[in-house]
Amino acid sequence: RALSIYQLLTDRFVDGDPRNNEIYEGEFDVRDMAFRHGGDFAGLRQKLPYIKGLGCRAIWISPVFQNGRDSYHQYAMHDFTLLDRRLGTLAELRELTDAAHALGMYVVVDVVM
Fold first, then answer.
1. CA torsion angle for 36, 41, 73, 69 (degrees, to 10)?
2. Does residue 97 surpass a pLDDT of 70?
3. Over the stretch 25-81, which tens digit does the pLDDT of each residue have?
4. pTM for the model
5. Which residues does 40 contact at the CB level (< 8 Å), separation at least 6?
6. Which of 53, 63, 90, 98 has its CA 20 to 30 A from that of 81?
């Protein structure tokens, strides 16, 4: 079956909770493409209606696990058992997933091993 998927790097999408931007000092700077920009689960949840309005029925987000310093893309995982706190909490990831499901959307989490 056909399904339109909106793929994104969570850190580069929307900063919904600025409190988690500087958990690790010195790696947040929206003026520098090599640094983190603050996108998180809360910001993504806020924009789900926008994504659905584009005709997408799923989102494919970058990895969510504990990541390396300045690894905005989230592909430098250190621990596959812990969420990266810079993206939000487990409760916020669940809220994102619940909100997507309420809109009839799927959530795909990228994993590289």
1. 50
2. yes
3. 666 565 665 666 567 899 999 999 999 999 999 999 999 888 776 666 676 777 788
4. 0.83
5. 10, 11, 14, 15, 16, 17, 20, 86, 87, 88, 92
6. 98
User: Which tokens go with 49?
Assistant: 């209606």
What dihedral do alpha carbons 72, 60, 84, 97 form, nearest 10°? 150
Identity of the amino acid at 4: S
Please provide the DSSP assignment of the chain as one string: ----EEEE-GGGT--S-GGGTTSSTT-B-TT-TTSB----HHHHHHTHHHHHHTT-SEEEEPP-EEE-TT-TT--SEEEEEEE-TTT--HHHHHHHHHHHHHTT-EEEE----
